[in-house]
Design brief:
Number of strands: 3
Shape: extended
Number of helices: 2
Structural class: alpha+beta
């Protein structure tokens, strides 16, 4: 075993003397590439992979507005990642969320709701422009 360790050390020191090789990564988008907008994600994991389905919701009205409503949740795409790729995605998201919040402030989970304004009261008698 001493010979194996010595041989490995020689190989490693020879490789480090040669220097590191540079690697260039080229990003290519195929013709059928598409982007989707998603309002949420759901999924899970097994010992082998992580699965994330990205979805959009569409409210559907049935009957009277006081009755229960149905929301159609359409899973647009699913991404399957190895555990290592899922960890890298987590780190990438954390870094970019921190950068976003440092520029734009904390991300709020609250959904802004439009407040109903009461209609302006109509005065029964109005001034006629140019006469008074």
């Amino acid at each position: 075993m001493a010979e194996d360790v010595g041989s490995r050390e020689n190989i490693e020191s020879t490789a480090s003397k040669k220097g590191k090789k540079s690697i260039t990564i080229e990003f290519i988008k195929p013709e059928d590439f598409r982007q989707i907008y998603a309002i949420g994600a759901a999924g899970g994991h097994s010992p082998y992979d992580f699965r994330i389905g990205f979805y959009n919701d569409t409210p559907k009205m049935f009957g009277d507005a006081s009755e229960s409503r149905v929301i159609e949740r359409r899973v647009e795409t699913e991404v399957i990642l190895s555990p290592v790729a899922a960890l890298e995605l987590s780190r990438w998201l954390t870094q970019h969320i921190n950068e976003y919040e440092s520029v734009f402030g904390p991300i709020s989970r609250a959904i802004p709701r439009m407040t109903k304004k009461e209609p302006a009261k109509v005065d029964e008698s109005t001034d006629i422009q140019g006469y008074i």
